[in-house]
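Input.
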Amino acid sequence: MTTETHQLDETDAKAAVTGADATRYFKEKEKSGGAVDPERVSTVAGAALKALHDVIREHDVTYDEYDALKAWLIRVGEDGEWPLFLDVFVEHVVEETVNKERNGTKGSIEGPFYVPGSPNLGAEGTLPQRDDEPGTPLDFGGVVESEDGTPLAGAVVELWHADDLGFYSQFAPALPEWNLRGSFTTGEDGRFLAHTVQPAPYQIPHDGATGALIAAAGWHAWRPAHLHLKVTAQDHQTITTQLYFEGGEYLDSDIASATKPELILAPTPKADETGVEVTYDFTLAKA
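Output.
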């Protein structure tokens, strides 16, 4: 009698593992964070608690509902899903507030799946991918420029995205470490060009605490297909954003509320019929 051993693949990704990975990367990021002013803590935390108290009063929250909330909050921590929950439901408002006065390219959320240190591929290159990487080939490029239109040589464009099944490397099993993650350094003309594949829409990890809230509220867990980008240049403000695809599903009902009309791409077929191509130029505000 033999027992078959299941070989893990990306579709075996679980919220608990994804949450643990996101928490680990956030803790590394947090080490470089600055100290928080106690007066700001008092002001913001006090306002947040007051808002919660107002909700309880307005909606006559019962003890059963309060106990359910406590149990759910405990589960979010146990599942390691605070980075996921906050990035999905809160970050878009923080991003909107932080960038409301800035000029140049519109920002969007970073999300929980960013990993620093991706391979640098020069001004043009192919994102690391499997030999049989599924999906429509996509050429994505553009120019990084300053507010006055001056091309920015040496700007770094970090690019990462989900694969054709909606999974991210380092957050799902069996994917190569840097699959569909890479950095580009613009040439003297400010240009870069990435060869990759078009990502798919995906459901955020929803078999844990965050998914329990989504199901209880009758929401869906889908995000539209998108590219993540972080663009950095000397003496300019870094921009973190996402680019979406015209006509894509869930553009109007993104669970993370992160889509913006200025961030919609419209790829066209390549002349050699080997995929699609699109350009998008980034304008960075002076620091």
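The chain has a mean pLDDT of 93.
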